Amino acid sequence: MFENLLDRVSQLPYLWSLLRRVVEADFKGEKALISTELKPLNPNDQRLFLDFGCGTGEFANCFPAKRYVGIDLSRQYLSFAQQTQKGNFAAMNGIALAFKSESFDAALVVGVLHHLPDQIAQTALAEIHRVLKPGAIILLMEDIPPQNAWNVAGHLMHWLDRGGYIRTNADYRALLGPHFTLLREYTMQSGICDYGVYLLSCLKPNFQ
User: Fold this and answer.
1) Contact at 8 Å (CB) between 161 and 145?
2) Structural contact between residues 47 and 40, judged by C-beta atoms closer than 8 angstroms
3) Tens digits of residue pLDDT in 73-97
4) pLDDT band at 129 (very low <50, low <70, confident <90, very high)
5) Would you give the distance in Å from CA 150 to the centre of its chain?
6) Cβ proximity of 188 and 123 under 8 Å
7) 38 in helix, strand or coil?
8) 41 Cβ contact partners less than 8 Å away, ≥ 6 residues apart
9) Mean pLDDT lowest for which of 36-50, 66-80, 87-101, 137-151?
10) Are 166 and 145 in contact (CB under 8 A)?
11) Kind of pairing, strands 88-91 and 68-72?
12) Domains in the chain and their CATH numbers?
């Protein structure tokens, strides 16, 4: 029943955006990491940023509008993003990006991989690698099981989550290993939601 309700809410961009803002404390944790790890608002910086799986565009305002491109499969979400955010948005399949190789200087990926089975996730990661320039930085945040046993709301949200592939840290590392160099990793809590955070580079992979 609750899963069906969540699915229905997810089809309504305004309500879905509102729900995510509530359970993730207005995305303060994610936005702080974007500012710290990607430093997109440096006035002398001319990098072009890709937001892979941007959804309703919640993080678009973390980037200069002219140097931000958000892509997503959902035209409903993109329409909402275009009405509420500044930036460039495009409907696109993540396993076949309509960009030339080495088009972007950095990328953001938040909460995408846990919706994808391993084979599709690997293809999507290969596409991200293809469209990024050598040495480009990727900030990836993915849902992980709640770290605190007393985070009852987080456990409930984890159980209801529409993504069927919430992985452990080791599983995410295995997915990322063939494509990227790991610079650092850690966990963070955003509202009631727990994330594994991976800062990556498009250099020779060094995962073990």
Assistant:
1) no
2) yes
3) 999 999 999 999 999 999 999 999 9
4) very high
5) 26
6) no
7) helix
8) 35, 62, 63, 64
9) 137-151
10) yes
11) parallel
12) 2-201 (3.40.50.150)
Higher pLDDT, 27 or 162: 27
Q: Is 119 exposed, middle or buried (0-12, 13-18, 19+ CB in 10 A)?
A: exposed
- In whole angstroms, give the CA distance from residue 90 to residue 159: 31
State which amino acid sits at residue 135. Answer: G
DSSP 192: T
Q: For residue 151, what pLDDT is reported?
A: 44
Instruction: Using the predicted structure, report yes or no on whether residue 102 has a pLDDT greater than 60.
Output: yes
- Average pLDDT for residues 131-146, to the nearest whole number? 91
**Cα–Cα nearest to 175, from 157, 195, 200:** 200
How long a stretch of residues is the chain? 208
Q: Residue holding tokens 């305002």?
A: 61
Phi, psi angle pair for 139, to nearest 5°: -105, 115
The burial of 201, by beta-carbon neighbours within 10 Å (0-12 exposed, 13-18 middle, 19 or more buried), is given as: middle
CB neighbour list of residue 149: distance below 8 Å, 6 or more residues apart: none
What is the DSSP code (8-state) at residue 111? S
Instruction: Choose among 178, 158, 177, 155: nearest CA to 166.
Output: 158
